[in-house]
């Protein structure tokens, strides 16, 4: 597979706000922090047109409340990732729930998903629920803010993504592995910068 990018689109901010409002209606009583992260949150950076959203909860115990609260909406819960990343709950939001495929009006689990739904063109958002005290919360926020304020790093990331977009990948995880060395290096720089500027 090839990864398709789009030039930065101001509508991504609007999409994020719309989904944030929807999430707040479902889980607002948990008092979450809901942040737009990833490439679609960085003005001027090309990206896959899928909005990355991070839900920050105060307590790790709240993570397992979220799947139930999102039942019956256009979300798919990827429970299989809990084993490798127990600090996170991962969901995708579908552009439209495919009622014509005969699914029940409840949240999907990944083992119930037909192959067609793994098509990224059917997704509008990836949603990551993480405790705000987690190092993973910090690194995502720091990396986003670092790209927003360091144009040379943003440009280097843009160039890397353009090179990787020309290659064939087995799947999205394979493509992410191609970005990994750059992201790990710059995340370390970003966290250090963030901690120095947010004391």
Automatic annotation (TrEMBL):
This is GrpB family protein. It comes from the Bacteria. It comes from Chryseobacterium gallinarum. Signal peptide: none annotated. Transmembrane segments: none annotated.
